[in-house]
Amino acid sequence: MKARVKLIEGVSFAGQSESGHTVVMDGSPDSGGKNLGVRPMEMLLLGLGGCSSFDVVHILRKGRQQVSDCVADIDAERAPTDPKVFTRIHVHFTVTGKSLDPKRVEQAVKLSAEKYCSASIMLGKTAEITHDFEVVEA
């Protein structure tokens, strides 16, 4: 897997994935940025949310659960001093579908967190990561 990050101007960068997708990252205005894109540390949280959500949906659909939506709301805290690593991350999944089995949703969240989500497992080396979920009938 390859990626490229290129300076645009100031502290704005364009990140391009091997699959050809581009995302703009920028610093906060107090760091010289213009707020043109997400912060790099926000990208880590988005990666965690995307990776774990993909797993949850994939596991549930493989188990013949009729998932129509999955939202991961992520709340994180960082260390107060440099390096300001994540110290606590909580992921709340809202999984919507038709006649979803809450036990299967719980198992999918657990499997993602403990076995499949590389981002979650990697960030878990420095942060306490917790998860919960709710099931919404479609």
TrEMBL record:
Pfam families: OsmC. It comes from the Bacteria. Coiled coil: none annotated. This is OsmC/Ohr family protein. It comes from Thiobacillus denitrificans (strain ATCC 25259 / T1).
